[in-house]
Amino acid sequence: MRQIRWLEFLKDYDTHFKYHPRKANVVADALSRRPYPALGCLLTLPNELCEEFRKLELNVATPRAKPMLCTLEVQPTLIEEIRVAQDMNPQLEQIREEILVGKAPGFVIHADGTIRFHNRVCVPIVEALKKKILKEGHNMPRSVHHGGNKLYKDLKQTFWWSNMKQEVADYVAKCLTYQRVKIEHQRPAGLLQPLEVPELKWDSVSIDFVVGLPLTQRKNNAI
Known about the structure:
9 helices, 5% strand, mainly alpha, 223 residues, flat, 4 strands
């Protein structure tokens, strides 16, 4: 679907695509090179890096002592939050007990302590936790506001909860950014075609059907 969007965007321009064989691409041009941050970037562009860290919800602390090189290790905390929420959920606690006696087919206790269903993390009924997962998969800068089906296919590979597909569809339907940028797959309706105003009586005759009514004694349900 992303390639279709690119195609619809590029079709308005007079462009020509030429294939360049890999063996002929001896020296990569500027467009083919990926920017790799260097030490000079850390020293000359602190504001830009701090802005990128802010988008990733990371805090940057500047030591007062002499500068030193450090290693930044980022670990996700979402799984830990789900594990803590599972311990407070009575339904999942009952499933945990059934797993220990072998009466919960499909459910297992993972090495990290979380309850999983077919290798998918079971998310308890906590609205704040589910909204955090949906926001992470839909509203973050790296998510590009996928549609309901694409978001559900991505999330169901890792997470599972009851009525998940419907909640994903409702969340995407309420996203204003997705409503503005989504692609319309239907043919444009064109201009309105109003009905002509009749000049004489009985010049225009129309019939309206009202269906789906309760059955009468004669088994009729329409007017």
